[in-house]
Amino acid sequence: MAGPGQMDRLIACLAKLPGVGRRSAERMAVRLIRERTGLARELVSALDEATRELAGCVQCGSITSASENPCALCTHPGRDSRLLCVVEDPADILAIEKSGGYQGRYHALMGKLSPMRSQGIQDLRLQALLERVSRDRVEEVILALNTDVESDATAVFIRERLADCGVRVTRLAFGLPVGSGIMYSDPVTLSRAMKGRQMP
Ligand SMILES: [Zn+2]
Q1: Ligand 1 ion: nearby residues, β-carbon < 5 Å
Q2: Beta strands of the chain (E only): which ranges?
Q3: What is the whole-number distance in angstroms between the Cα of residue 162 and the centre of ligand 1?
Q4: 26-47 confidence digits (pLDDT tens)
Q5: 67 CA distance to ligand 1 centroid (A)?
Q6: pLDDT digits over 72-125, tens only?
Q7: How far is the CA of 153 from the centre of ligand 1 (A)?
Q8: At what angle are helices 22-34 and 39-53 packed, to 10 degrees?
Q9: CA distance 135 to 143
């Protein structure tokens, strides 16, 4: 007979997903089990298919079909191999692609240096990054990392490791959000926007 054990296990699994807290995981679990709309079965089927047919790209780390690995972004002849954009998460690649302003290659670290969550150098795809930079004759590494303390530490670490590789290392400019006002910006954003000011 079903007991609280199964429910706890389901909630614990859901709560491991990024951006899902314990409370949200409980609500998802209740909805999946209580509502007999077929959503649970659909989810199981979609997960089963995705895990069988999708994989992480061996080169950049983004999600691709298991039959097309390296992915289309890595093999497309029209993309500039001299530019390598480093992101923390494959989802960041999708966001940058949507912006339409970048035509180089990508490299996902799969995280950032984080002593609090004991994610260290060995957990990131840093060695693969160093190998790519020399093998693919990369001229500029663009760090498209987030703006927290751990991302800053990761950026400094990568810059130091690449110092002897003869490659230019840049980081995305931090600016004011479009459509927002100066008075609504937090002091750190304003300070970084001031440092990264450009010709109008
Ligand atoms: Zn790829």
Answers
A1: 57, 59-60, 70-71, 73-74
A2: 54-56, 63-65, 80-87, 104-108, 140-143, 168-171
A3: 21
A4: 999 999 988 777 888 999 999 9
A5: 13
A6: 999 999 999 999 999 999 999 999 999 888 999 999 999 888 876 666 677 789
A7: 25
A8: 110
A9: 19
